[in-house]
Every structure is written in structure tokens, then in C-alpha cells.
Design brief:
mainly alpha
């Protein structure tokens, strides 16, 4: 894999985890983060059966991705796989963000 592909995958998995985080699910289901955490152990009385099944499935997906996918896309792993210093990975990530922001700004100016 190239550095660019690795960074794309890192962004994807971070967004995937963010969608299934305690805070996101708490906002989505209108409960506290503690309730979301407890829902991994037992069903919540304040939610319907379908909501309990959905929240359990999302949290299981979160833990599976955290365990199976994220170790591949940590900065240190990406640096080792590409044979570069970890600081270069972080710098490449920063440059990608700056380039995307510049492209977005340019498209916005062209549209106006």
C-alpha cells in the first residue's frame, strides 16, 4: 500500500469509529454515554427492543473495528509499513488536509 492509500484508510476507519462512539450514539438515541456503555451489558428499559438491538450491533462493530482494523492504521504502523519516520506520516497527513482545504476553497470560488 502507498502512504496515500494508508492515510485514506486511516481517515475512513476513524470516521467509522466516530459514528459508533459512545458520544455519537448517546446523541442519536437520546440517552447518556453511561447508558450506551451499559447497553453493551444489558438492554435499556428506556429504549425499544429494536433500538437496543441496533445500539448493541453498533457497539459490537465499534469494538471489532478497534481491535481488528485500527492497529493497521496507527501512525506508527503506517510509518513502519512504508519505511519512513513517523513524523513524515504526520506531515503527509497535514499536507493532505491543507491540499483538500485549498481545493475546496478553489471550487467554492469558482462556483461563486
Amino acid at each position: 500500500m502507498s502512504l496515500d492509500t494508508d492515510l485514506d484508510q486511516r481517515e475512513y476507519w476513524r470516521a467509522y469509529l466516530r459514528e459508533r462512539s459512545l458520544e455519537t450514539l448517546a446523541d442519536r438515541f437520546g440517552v447518556s454515554t453511561t447508558a450506551v456503555w451499559l447497553s453493551e451489558i444489558r438492554a435499556l428499559a428506556s429504549l425499544t427492543d429494536e433500538e437496543n438491538v441496533e445500539i448493541k450491533r453498533l457497539r459490537d462493530e465499534y469494538h471489532a473495528a478497534l481491535r481488528d482494523e485500527m492497529p493497521k492504521y496507527r501512525l506508527k504502523s503506517i510509518a513502519q509499513r512504508n519505511g519512513i519516520n513517523i513524523r513524515r506520516v504526520a506531515l503527509a497527513q497535514q499536507k493532505r488536509l491543507e491540499r483538500r482545504a485549498a481545493e475546496f476553497y478553489q471550487k467554492r470560488q469558482e462556483a461563486a
